[in-house]
Design goal:
homodimer; mainly alpha; Arc Repressor Mutant, subunit A; three-stranded antiparallel beta sheet; 5 helices; elongated; DNA-binding
Chain lengths: 119, 119
DNA sequence: TCTGTATATGCCTTGACAGGAATATGCGGA
DNA sequence: TCCGCATATTCCTGTCAAGGCATATACAGA
């Protein structure tokens, strides 16, 4: 059995590769056949196919056969997963912002205080 | 000069490694010294140090010296970047949802229509 | 059925990276 | 100053993934 996060690792790995990231960004504008992608991003056709395979395996992309070509379209589902995962972290940067705010206020009031204990 | 996305690739690469991902998840609850992390996640100390180095390089973590130990804390800034990047994609899953909705409605009304052209 | 176009797959080489084990470094206390 | 604890670094090895190139597959049209 697999780790519950394994899907996320795979998604991260897929997006960590610059050319795949570019493909994802490109497909955001709409579906494209393989050759188109290669031309647009200046990649050899076999490499495009291979990258698309990886993207398909993690569910970031889906194919539709259109005569002899394949139309690849972005499937945002894994990105939505990522978004849900980030949810847990949003509180952190809000908190950070408040801390920063506090520091600024402290500076403004020129108030000197001893280092507070961490919670 | 670097690609504007290079920071994102690095963040993705950092999070694609299961043990680093676990470290990030662990640090969400608060800062920890190196040894603590190793014990908690059952990792050898050198590996923890190495993973922390990578996390620090991408800015996901920051260190505070505390006597002879180092307290590692999560820095959510890169995650916030990620969040901002995802912003552009949120519209996609909303759109998907609406398409799905449409399909459901169509099924409910038993309406038969010819395949519409893509926009 | 033969051909050409679009795409997928296989093989090879190379580079990056993770874990393991040994060792170096930094710092506080006696 | 010497020792010990906490952490960082180094070296080694194995694995895996990406690019380049050649080739296989699939399908439409003549």
């Amino acid at each position: 059995m697999e780790n519950i996060w394994s899907v996320m690792y795979a998604t991260f790995a897929a997006l960590a590769e610059p050319n795949r990231f570019r493909i994802v960004e490109l497909l955001r504008a709409g579906a494209r056949p393989v050759n188109d992608i290669g031309v647009e991003l200046d990649l050899a056709q076999p490499q495009v196919s291979k990258h698309l395979r990886v993207l398909k395996e993690v569910g970031l992309v889906e194919v539709e056969a259109r005569a002899q070509q394949r139309l690849y379209a972005l499937d945002p589902a894994p990105l939505q997963e990522l978004d849900r995962w980030l949810e847990k972290y949003r509180a952190l940067w809000v908190e950070r912002f408040e801390q920063l705010d506090e520091v600024i206020n402290a500076a403004h009031t020129q108030e000197k205080r001893r280092g507070r204990k961490k919670r």
